[in-house]
Design goal:
mainly alpha, two-stranded antiparallel sheet, 14 helices, 8% strand
């Protein structure tokens, strides 16, 4: 299983994650959780590329969620492409096997931003920053807050001469999904090279499951990814499973919340629900 902090199980105990809850239902199947907080499709493709050769998995399940398109828009590495023969190859700089980290005592020059090197060291700066956030959250309504934040991001990117790497506008979302489609095509091809079946499973944003229960505003341009993923996977011929309808149906039946309050990670009850859904879904792809 490939994914980020939701797959990793951030906030839940190890034995409460849905991968652990799945294992008793599949005693003859080795289920490997490779989730890492902050990962997107680029990193997950790298995990599949590196570990796939050694593990030769029968099935690769990508746990996809609403912030992945923005992650893949922002990150530029790991990078992959098709070579002249049509095989998937990694193109960004990697550490060679012959590299010896103890061969030199000279510090490598790293790009350090001023705010990281100076201002972040001062507690006063941190206190002021937290105070501004508190005032913003207290006095600005969510929609206005998002608009101001987006406007400031655009200005900062323009001043730095950088490509805008957040999804706040329709054109950002279009560009992000173009990148997503490229990465999914590469992941599908790499899976075929390994003899591995690929399935994408989307875990929905909690506000889409229940606005009233979890009570946090989300911009629909970001969170509503299911239709785009369904269309993209259908075009590429990739198997896709959307958990949103089932989780909307099961959420009112659960005494415990499926998500942590004002957070986007699954609570133990949510992990249990996802595990139950996958128990019915996975056999279709494992046979």
């Amino acid at each position: 299983m490939l994914g980020d902090s939701v797959l990793y199980g951030l906030g839940s105990a190890d034995d409460e994650t849905f991968t652990e809850l799945l294992k008793p239902a599949f005693p003859d199947t080795e289920i490997i959780n490779t989730g890492v907080p902050g990962y997107g499709l680029r990193q997950e493709l790298a995990v599949l590329d590196i570990l796939g050769e050694k593990m030769a998995p029968d099935l690769a399940v990508v746990i996809y969620r609403w912030n992945d398109p923005e992650d893949d828009l922002r990150n530029k590495t790991p990078a992959f492409e098709f070579d002249e023969s049509g095989r998937v190859v990694r193109t960004d700089v990697q550490v060679p096997d012959t590299f010896d980290p103890f061969a030199t005592r000279e510090a490598l020059p790293l790009p350090v931003r001023m705010e990281d090197a100076v201002y972040m060291k001062f507690n006063l700066y941190q206190a002021a920053r937290n105070g501004v956030r508190e005032l913003r959250d207290r006095f600005l309504p969510p929609k206005r807050r998002h608009a101001v934040r987006s406007w400031l991001r655009v200005i900062k990117s323009a001043l730095r001469g950088e490509e805008y790497d957040r999804i706040d506008r329709p054109e950002d979302k279009t560009r992000a999904w173009e990148i997503t489609a490229e990465l999914l095509e590469l992941m599908q091809a790499r899976s075929e090279e390994l003899g591995t079946k690929l399935v994408i499973v989307s875990v929905p944003a909690y506000s889409l499951v229940s606005d009233t229960r979890y009570g946090r505003y989300h911009v629909e341009i970001k969170t509503n990814i299911e239709d785009d993923m369904r269309e993209t996977c259908a075009r590429l011929g990739i198997e896709y499973v959307d958990l949103l309808p089932a989780m909307r149906r099961l959420d009112p039946q659960s005494e415990e919340p499926l998500y942590f309050y004002r957070d986007n990670h699954l609570a133990p009850a949510g992990n249990a629900v996802v595990a139950e859904l996958l128990k019915d879904i996975l056999p279709t792809y494992l046979n």
